[in-house]
Design brief:
The chain has twelve helices and no strands. With 282 residues, the chain is mostly helical. The protein has one domain.
């Protein structure tokens, strides 16, 4: 529910500020809150300043998982319907399976490749009518798919590292470091004269920072530590909630194309996960 709400919240936010400004403020607020609360109220040897090696890991993870992924995603939401944004997030499990295979030096199976293509076809079908009425552009879809690739690689990398830090610190540091990495681009590329500190901006920033970047990501990291593949099953719910939010709050249309495309994405997820279960059991 939280992840699916990010696309709608972002759509509201970019009405009042350039995408990079929105992203950068979100990263710093989330990072400062998480690190401040964690170091203030948590006890134990594990709640410490990261080592030099851990900072390297956090920097790479933060760049992929937050700087690159969310910057591309925020830009994409300026040119893409909110419902399509949530639908694209649900393809993350398929991409995780493929990148996990590549990371481990294993050639992706025919089923895995087929499921990714089926999922992307579903996004294309759901996007078709929205391309006609300017709710979505082709460039927006390219940015959106690129953001999904970045976060999928980040999830695989996260699962391969033997983290010794608590989830709260990992999330706090990675999102704060991501804000630092993005800052030069925000300062150089954004038109600050267009920033309006109105209700859209403030409510969007607070929701994205606290509900999505803090609460949502803590839940996601916890699930990733248990089982990466099983964790991705929860993303089945993203398109369902995403299209509901987009229809309810943004008045985006739900058409036959929307339903058909969503069905193909969910079918591809099911087939991909079923293939993963069979491999695990064998």
């Amino acid at each position: 529910m939280l992840w699916a709400s990010a696309s709608v919240a972002t759509k509201f936010g970019v009405l009042s500020a350039p995408p990079l400004v929105l992203a950068n403020v979100r990263f710093f607020i989330a990072g400062i809150i998480l690190l401040g609360l964690t170091y203030s109220f948590s006890r134990g040897e594990e709640y410490r300043i990261p080592t030099k090696e851990e900072f390297k890991q956090l920097t790479l993870f933060g760049f992929l998982n937050t700087t690159l992924y969310l910057s591309l995603y925020v830009f994409a939401m300026k040119y893409t319907a909110a419902g399509i944004g949530s639908l694209a997030v649900s393809t993350n499990p398929l991409l995780i399976v493929v990148f996990s295979a590549l990371w481990l030096g294993r050639k992706p199976s025919g089923t895995e490749v087929f499921c990714v293509l089926l999922g992307m076809t579903g996004i294309g079908i759901a996007s078709y009518p929205l391309l006609q009425d300017s709710h979505t552009t082709l460039g927006g879809l390219v940015l959106l798919i690129s953001s999904m690739i970045a976060v999928s690689v980040a999830s695989v990398y996260y699962a391969t590292v033997k983290w010794k830090l608590p989830n709260l610190l990992i999330n706090g540091w990675q999102v704060f470091i991501a804000g630092i990495l993005l800052l030069p681009f925000t300062l150089g590329l954004s038109d600050f004269s267009t920033v309006r500190l109105d209700y859209n901006f403030l409510s969007s920033i607070l929701w994205l920072s606290i509900a999505v970047s803090i609460v949502g990501l803590i839940c996601w990291f916890h699930l990733l530590r248990i089982d990466t593949v099983k964790a991705s099953l929860w993303l089945f719910l993203c398109p369902v909630f995403g299209f509901f939010y987009a229809w309810w709050l943004m008045h985006e249309p739900i058409t036959v194309f929307t339903i058909a495309g969503t069905f193909l994405v969910i079918l591809s997820l099911y087939l991909g996960q079923r293939s993963g279960w069979k491999k695990k059991s064998s």
